[in-house]
Design brief:
This protein is mainly α. The protein is built from 6 helices and no strands. It has one domain.
């Protein structure tokens, strides 16, 4: 019989799974206040090869969510007040323009665009705009909580030497 070698999962795989497990538990315990889909996506994206890359991904995700959330919330409120398909047809491309212009020209963060688009469209194209600012706030809260979980999990490194040292005091009398 031929022996088959199976590779062990790496630390990044395990950290991703642990992050997903924790956010799923938090989502379940929240009785619907936290959205498991949003949190799982953030947790998966936040676990990077090293802590610095992870932190940069988390910063990008939070900033993008806030940009898309603010522009989406403003557009959604206008759409809700106007209750006009024509207004919707104008506001969606206008919101896309604002995100693109803000991220690429004003703050020079092109990497924020895709996530900001996603959040903006999730807010403005939702079938229930009467939920108002609650949805964007939930998305931002989900993003922040999942980002913190992923960052804490990603800080764990069993190979890292402890930087805490015990200093023996000299007790000469």
């Amino acid at each position: 019989m031929k022996k088959v070698n199976v590779a062990k999962p790496g630390l990044r795989i395990m950290k991703t799974v642990v992050s997903v497990l924790i956010v799923m538990i938090l989502s379940t315990l929240s009785n619907g206040l936290l959205n498991s889909y949003d949190m799982v996506v953030v947790a998966i994206l936040a676990i990077q090869a090293d802590v610095t890359k992870s932190f940069n991904e988390i910063k990008k995700r939070i900033a993008s969510t806030i940009i898309g959330g603010i522009i989406g919330t403003i557009a959604m409120c206008i759409m809700y007040i106007a209750k006009s398909d024509l207004v919707n047809v104008i506001l969606i491309p206008l919101g896309i323009f604002l995100i693109l212009y803000l991220c690429s020209k004003l703050i020079n963060k092109k990497e924020y665009i895709i996530i900001a688009y996603y959040v903006f469209l999730a807010i403005t194209l939702d079938e229930a705009p009467e939920i108002g600012w609650i949805y964007p706030m939930r998305v931002m809260i989900n993003t922040i909580i999942a980002s913190i979980v992923a960052m804490v999990v990603n800080l764990y490194n069993p190979k890292r030497k402890s930087k805490v040292s015990i200093v023996k005091e000299d007790t000469q009398e």
